[in-house]
Amino acid sequence: MTASKSDEQRDLGHGLKTRHLTMMGLGSAVGAGLFLGTGVGIKAAGPAVLISYIVAGIVVVFVMRMLGELAAARPASGTFATYARQAFGGWAGFSLGWLYWFMLIMVMGTEITGAGAIMGKWFGVDGWIPGLVCVVLFTIVNLFAVRGFGEFEYWFSFVKVAVIFAFLVIGVLLIFGWLPGHEAVGTDNLTPFAPEGISGISAGLLAVAFAFGGIEIVTIAAAESEKPSQAITSAVRAVVWRIMLFYLGSVAVITTLINYTDLADEEDASNSPFTRVLRMADVPAIVGIMEIVIVLALLSAFNAQIYATSRLMYSFAWQGNAPKVFRKLSSQRVPIAAVACSLVFAFISVGLQIWGPADLINILFNAVGGSLLVIWVMIVLSELKLRPQLVAEGSLKLRMWGWPVLPVLTLVALAALTILMLFDESARQQVITVAIAFGLLCALGGYVTRHHDASDRDALRDRSGETAGQ
Length: 470
Fold this sequence. Notes:
The chain is mainly alpha-helical.
């Protein structure tokens, strides 16, 4: 079946290429958290944090493989919220979509505030001034055709990936004494490997479990690629393994070159583990370089999240879960009202970060990790429910390995992580906050969607599969 011309005119653009999606996924997951937050997990577990990263990484690889399977078969800008709706009904799509939208809005405020603070120090002005300039810039970027956004994000992410690649090369040269003027470091810093035992590895797992968050944006962008099914298949396969390499490689280099007891409790560009390693290699002006990289990482993530939240809002509007005004597209086939809404709430989030009560900010931001946990669980449940349908309709282009055993084991791992969080005082609040928020959203979703026609179209009116090959 072919979509009508009027339907096609209502659709989003299709200007993203596979290279955009691949680099976007890498850039979203490889953010400022990698450059500034790596030391938290290392201090908790010592060199054994590598085990924590491997466990967390395997879980995320499995979740992304399942999401990629769904997105390749049925590309949609609503991504996992759309699949939850298809699997379990309107309440599931409503609650999951709005939970993710809320999470991204909170993170956006933190990122632009952090970037503005660093840039403010450069220019001797208040941080909100450069932050405001950047918001205006990204408003312009996101209001033009999606290919412009893709190129902008591609080069942002390229810089981050290039820095990590250079870091890995320099780190290996330092470890083996192949850098002129430097002796081999050896493996002394790797012993004892697990100084805190299993409890340390568990604490490290909590510290790094959500480090890979952001990779799921690839499947949101897939609906605007030239050939969604093929693009998402290639991008998911490339992204998950490269991210594992970057994270594991970086942590292996850091733990080999720096004793875990020497890492600082509070990290900024000057005492980031990355900065310290590059300083060992006598890289000139390294603090300034890392500040630039961190600002680029924050701005890249902010830009990607404006994109993601606006596309989610567009999807919500077509599902009947948001006002119809957010269906409106510009002449560039960009959801202009949805982009404007995301920016308004980004400003509110920034205001909360700067002027809001500390307790409120902490509670809201603590919800980020718990929100990802809910989203990953719902992705797995949706894949288990929809997989037989995809097989029957012959639309599977990317398959989850070892189905249904590995999806079930992934659910068990996520349940174990939830229990681990409940026993950790600092993480418990995340679980409780998100459980309450998700419960309220489910109830609201049930009320809002009970009058929806069961045959109502999903995001992109469920025509994504029909238009994918056009």
